[in-house]
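Long-time lurker. I teach an intro course on protein structure, and each term I like to show students one example going from raw sequence to a predicted 3D structure in token notation. This year I'd like something fresh instead of my usual example. Would anyone be willing to generate the tokens for the chain below so I can use it in lecture? Attribution to the forum is fine with me.
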Amino acid sequence: MCQPPLSPTFVQSSPNQNTNTNTNTNNIQQYLHFRGKEDSTSVRPTYMENQTHINERMRAILVDWLVEVHLKFKLVPQTLYLTVHLIDRFLELKVVKRQKLQLVGVTAMFIASKYEEIYAPECRDFVYISDKAYTRDEILRMEGQLLAKLNFQLTTPNAFVFVKRFAKVAGIATTPRSTTELLANYLVELTLQDYKMLKYLPSTICASAVYLALKTRGKTPWTPDLEKHSTYKEADLQACVRDIHELHEKATTNSLQAVRKKYAQEKHGNVSSIAPAHLGF
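-- Reply from a regular --
Happy to contribute to a lecture. Here you go:
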């Protein structure tokens, strides 16, 4: 199949100052575009009711494994977010048997990699990483089915754009990356496994994660600038903040540990060892 186009240049970094200025403009434009499309591209948060062979737990196990695969292949964050979104959109539209769920996941990451990565893993890499549970032909066949079912629409609101934008507004997007920004990203990734978090828009999750990261680090959690740029009032975020906080509290005892272990690494600031905040609401 033809390789899908690379994602917009805003995801690429450059040491050139002029390029950085252009990239920042692209960031804002992409953010505004995605905010406008969120409602129309969101996944129905009750789609699992129509699945007769799989359930929320199976989805969580699949996402946990894909986080490990994503880390092993050293892929960019956008690829992980797009992978999970493709899985949910496909499952919303098609009933999938249990033995084919991992195939859907592998294929979604294969497609997302070709869309987001400069050097994407090859199909044979995904055959290998799935312990040869599926053949190359099966993955390519599922790729065709998935793309056709989604009408080849891969450009949808991505949580990475929102968390990056809100972190910048909050003043925590630094080089090297600040502990608070890494913590916000950790909190967002904790939501990927949890099916119930589909009831929130990606921008709501990211705004809530930045809020919670700031609060956890003893900073003012919500400022006039954050309210202006996100369009969320502090009260709008409380339900989502509580749900993410609950995931943070349960992270150490959850049987699915891929995200926590990932953010226990030094390159991710060991932020998964940071104790949850006391919310007070």
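Some talking points for your students: Residues 26 and 69 are 29 Å apart (CA to CA). The first helix runs from residue 17 to 41.
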